[in-house]
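Researcher: Re-running this chain for the archive, since the previous output was lost when a drive failed. Same request as before.
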Amino acid sequence: MAFQHIKVIYPTAPARPYTPMKGTFSTVWFDRYKISNDCPEHIESIDSMCRGLTELINDEIKNGIAKNRILIGGFSMGGGMAMHLAYRFHQDLAGVFALSSFLNKDSAVYQTLKKNKSILPELFQCHGTADELVLYSWGEETNMMLKSLGVSTSLHTFPNLNHELNRTEIEKLKTWILKKLPIEAAETNE
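Model: Regenerated structure tokens:
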């Protein structure tokens, strides 16, 4: 994932106690009560990470990157984190990608978007139908709910793909990134 005109930052989640692993320290963006879409979100840990990631976005803005030229996203929890960050706190970003990710049924994201009247960042989503950790139906439900709340979404389905990435998925993501952040706009932005 290298681009001539785009800076790519790969933040890593901090180590924290993770309830689904009986409190064992794990590098996760936020805690969960269980790996399921039908339980409450651990909003305190989500909001704590949103504050930290907001600092990362603000640093890029201070360095001259226009906010509407910033995309955020991730795989699994990283995609869920990106959806919280963008749709609750940074609705003026260029877009969001979520790979093998989901939001809980009663997500704070949905509550925020129910009150929203502004244009929202586009969501690029991919999910494998054989994912046994984050069920495909959870990703599909997230996509449908966000679409019903005014988010322009795309969901790319990968038959027989488990909780992993594949080359085709990465190529589709790269194409979307270049569509959202074309080189011509970067040159006129300088």
